[in-house]
Specification:
0% strand, disordered N terminus, single chain
Length: 94
Amino acid sequence: MTYALARFGYLYPLVQYQLLKTVDTLSKVPMIRTDPRFQEMLDRLKSKQDSEGRLLPESINKSWSDFDFGQKKSPSPWVTFLTVRAIMRANQQD
């Protein structure tokens, strides 16, 4: 289905943020949150935050260049939100 959507020009914004997409998805599964491999990905994502906890997209998809998450010049509120949400979810005790 992803191929079909991409073929017709529709790409979900997280496509360019593979680490973020993976951490965000896996953070929804409580039993994975303590896995060392997940923790390594989470630490890597945290290391990309600036001193205020914001994230600057490292790569962009030109079709999303009009949106804040499609800019590489300044921190993205959307990418920052997704990152903070994943970190908070990963730190939950379920």
